[in-house]
Amino acid sequence: MFADNAKIFIKSGKGGDGHVSFRKELFVPAGGPDGGDGGKGGDIIFEVDPGLNTLTDFRHVRKYVARDGEQGGKKRCHGANAENLVIKVPEGTVIKDFETGKVIADMSGENKRETILRGGKGGLGNMNFATPTMQAPKYAQPGQQGHELWVQLELKVIADVGLVGFPNVGKSTLLSRVSNAKPKIANYHFTTLNPHLGVVDLDGGAGFVMADIPGLIEGASQGIGLGHDFLRHIERCRVLVHVVDAAGTEGRDPIADIRAINAELEAYNPELLKRPMVIAANKIDAVYSEDEDPVEILKQEFEPEGIKVFPISAVSGKGVKELLYAVYELLKTVNLDPVIFEKEFEIEYAGDRNLPYTVEQNEDGEFVVEGPRIEKMLGYTNLESEKGFQFFQKFLKENGILDELEAAGIKEGDTVRMYGLAFDYYK
């Protein structure tokens, strides 16, 4: 069974408690405190496993809890740190906070391993609390609690080119002809219920990855049928190929089909319509009309919009080579970096809000904001993207940094500098 989404519960380990004990040795009547520190709780880590291609395993195991750190011991013995719990997922898995739907991490591209929940810190033993006035402390620090979260895992296929179209128009047949993929093919609606990936090899070592996206229906963007399950796989594709039944063997209108699918793509994510598109007018070997050429009708309708039409027969292979090379040339015109979903949700830890920062005005009149809290935030935020910059602005507001800048006398147009990043301040 193919699975492309799952809801699971994750929890990091609790830190071990610090220990309370006193040194007891012969001839040492007052040896002092010697309780050791507790060990750190286990982290929850997600890691890409190249051998996986579905989320099926998460349908059977839905709870993932890391071990707790070991308690400290006497004689200043430090409790053992717990092992981290590593959860293996296929490449392309997006981890979201279940409550808000915001992205925590995208396990794609160079992001092969990421800590999602940190384990709790171990507590300090009583040896750390001895002072000149309190030489025999009878207390120790408890370990920090672990953190828990319900997360939604979504697998979004990573492919350069996506084949889209209504059921039974020949997408699976086309993919099986041009690549090494072996999808099941039959003359039934919704034969393909999961995406298939294939590598298309062209002359001279060129090539790309093509995905057969399961057949869409009208209303898919509202979740009708398996709409959302299908549409999420299109989000990473850089070029879309509309496959239509040019011969109308089942009485469908190819033009209406393309318009309907584009409407569903726009309703789901308007950015999808900005991707380069071509039309594969399939089943031309079954065209028997002498009065009008359905391919010419498609060209007159869509080529003025910049969408080229290629007549093909996925069964015989006619016209397929021309289609593939045209798609390859289109790929050269778009960004070759994989589509990665930006981080939108940051786990709040008890100690993070206590990290210090400073707001000062330098000799040049610039307002400089520095400190480990700021440095940490900039380390995981991509300010070059719109979502990343919105996340950055929200951080400044919610953490009181904007209020401190105003209290320091900042005015509109003044420069704010943070670790090499400089921007003008405007309300």
UniProtKB/TrEMBL annotation:
Belongs to the TRAFAC class OBG-HflX-like GTPase superfamily. OBG GTPase family. Residues 1-158 form the Obg domain. Its cofactor is Mg(2+). InterPro entries: G_OBG, GTP-bd, GTP-bd_Obg/CgtA, GTP-bd_prot_GTP1/OBG_C_sf, GTP1-OBG_CS, GTP1_OBG_dom, GTP1_OBG_dom_sf, OBG_GTPase. An essential GTPase which binds GTP, GDP and possibly (p)ppGpp with moderate affinity, with high nucleotide exchange rates and a fairly low GTP hydrolysis rate. Plays a role in control of the cell cycle, stress response, ribosome biogenesis and in those bacteria that undergo differentiation, in morphogenesis control. Mg(2+) binds at residues 172, 192. GTP binds at residues 165-172, 190-194, 212-215, 282-285, 313-315. Keywords: Cytoplasm, GTP-binding, Hydrolase, Magnesium, Metal-binding, Nucleotide-binding. This is GTPase Obg. It comes from the Bacteria. Residues 349-427 form the OCT domain. CDD domains: Obg (cd01898). It comes from Ventrimonas faecis. Residues 159-332 form the OBG-type G domain. The gene is obgE.
